[in-house]
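[recover] target loaded
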């Protein structure tokens, strides 16, 4: 404490000429005195440098010292000689004194030796500090990539998550991290896999080129892995799209299946940005007998141009929609026909066909429509059971079905009882 008091008095009194303490001169207000002191420390031996930094660290850590901001500024000015203060500088990033925090931020960004410690500090549970650490690493760009890659090898989920996030924010500068991110993108942990996939998308063209090369690798596992990675990147990078489509004809069945599954995983809006040979490639793959054929058929159905939505009271159009390859369209059409009540009686035969589906939601929608159109059909237990069954994503029960609250009974002129309720 006595030594600390002497340093503070030196700084406060600006004893530029008379104060013999190097620390006192490092804390002086006069820029010339500070500059001379910095130069003196830089020219001194390792022992003297460490001694000066140690004293400045003590002042920085003392929350009651009035010279903390000056100490932080002095450490910043020392440059590489301040490497011994890296832990204290990281802790100071979130300091309540903005002058201290700003000096710490600038010092860490300039200190190459701080990169490993900053990468390790991503594990902090303090969101504000982690944000500052992330920004410092992003500032370092490609120089920080190697240590961030090592974070994926430490077996710590949070460290992998935040490292992937930082690499993603670096964009193309994180090109050398693409292999590590690709491995993380097929991780068994969904959070890590999702963050790594997002980072690959943010890296952009370098990631696409790397994945395209992997799809042409002599190793089938590498080709299948690249296809799996691409399934989580929406839309797929243009640089890899051609290679992914080409993988539908791969000699390895697993690679073909992964490629087809990747293409089937994209939302309909993504298909317009893919190469024009996609349709022909999918049609060819759909003619096979392996798993790729099924995924190819799914992709074909999703890529088909959407038909104009039928009007709410257009029985013919809604009935036609019941035969759409798009399951959501069939479910929506059944609900709309049910809302029309008895007026949609012409759709009953097609609704019975829709009811025979194995899909719980479609069966429920068709059952509801049939009962709304002809309340007498309530007596068929199969309809009531389908209506009451809770399906994934189904919220409405029979009493909440759209349409007339109490449809009037009708006498269909030529209606025949269904042969298979």
């Amino acid at each position: 404490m006595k030594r600390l008091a002497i340093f503070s008095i030196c700084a406060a009194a600006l004893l530029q000429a008379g104060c013999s303490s190097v620390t006192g001169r490092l804390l002086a207000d006069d820029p010339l005195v500070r500059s001379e002191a910095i130069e003196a420390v830089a020219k001194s031996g390792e022992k003297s440098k460490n001694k000066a930094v140690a004293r400045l660290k003590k002042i920085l850590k003392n929350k009651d010292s009035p010279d903390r901001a000056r100490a932080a500024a002095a450490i910043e000015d020392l440059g590489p000689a301040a490497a011994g203060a890296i832990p204290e500088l990281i802790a100071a990033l979130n300091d309540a004194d903005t002058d201290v925090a700003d000096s710490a931020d600038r010092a860490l960004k300039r200190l190459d030796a701080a990169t490993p410690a900053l990468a390790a500090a991503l594990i902090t549970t303090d969101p504000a500090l982690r944000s500052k650490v992330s920004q410092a690493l992003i500032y370092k760009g490609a120089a920080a990539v190697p240590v961030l890659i090592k974070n994926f090898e430490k077996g710590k989920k949070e460290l992998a998550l935040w490292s992937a996030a930082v690499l993603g924010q670096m964009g193309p500068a994180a090109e050398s991290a693409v292999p590590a991110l690709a491995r993380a993108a097929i991780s068994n942990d969904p959070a890590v896999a999702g963050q790594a996939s997002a980072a690959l998308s943010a890296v952009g063209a370098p990631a696409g080129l790397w994945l395209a090369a992997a799809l042409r690798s002599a190793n089938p596992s590498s080709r299948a892995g690249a296809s799996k990675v691409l399934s989580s990147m929406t839309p797929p990078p243009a640089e890899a799209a051609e290679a992914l489509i080409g993988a539908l004809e791969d000699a390895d069945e697993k690679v073909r299946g992964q490629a087809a599954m990747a293409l089937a995983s994209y939302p309909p809006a993504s298909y317009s940005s893919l190469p024009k040979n996609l349709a022909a490639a999918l049609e060819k793959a759909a003619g096979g007998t392996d798993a790729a054929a099924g995924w190819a058929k799914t992709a074909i159905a999703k890529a088909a141009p959407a038909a104009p939505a039928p009007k709410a009271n257009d029985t013919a159009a809604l009935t036609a929609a019941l035969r759409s390859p798009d399951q959501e369209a069939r479910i929506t059409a059944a609900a709309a026909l049910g809302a029309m009540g008895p007026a949609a009686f012409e759709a009953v035969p097609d609704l019975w066909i829709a009811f025979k589906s194995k899909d719980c939601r479609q069966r429920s929608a068709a059952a509801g429509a049939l009962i709304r159109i002809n309340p007498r059909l309530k007596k068929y237990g199969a309809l009531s059971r389908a209506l009451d069954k809770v399906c994934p994503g189904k919220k409405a029960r029979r009493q909440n079905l759209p349409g007339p609250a109490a449809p009037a009974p009708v006498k269909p002129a030529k209606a025949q009882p269904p042969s298979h309720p």
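[recover] notes: Residues 212 and 240 are 4 Å apart (CA to CA).
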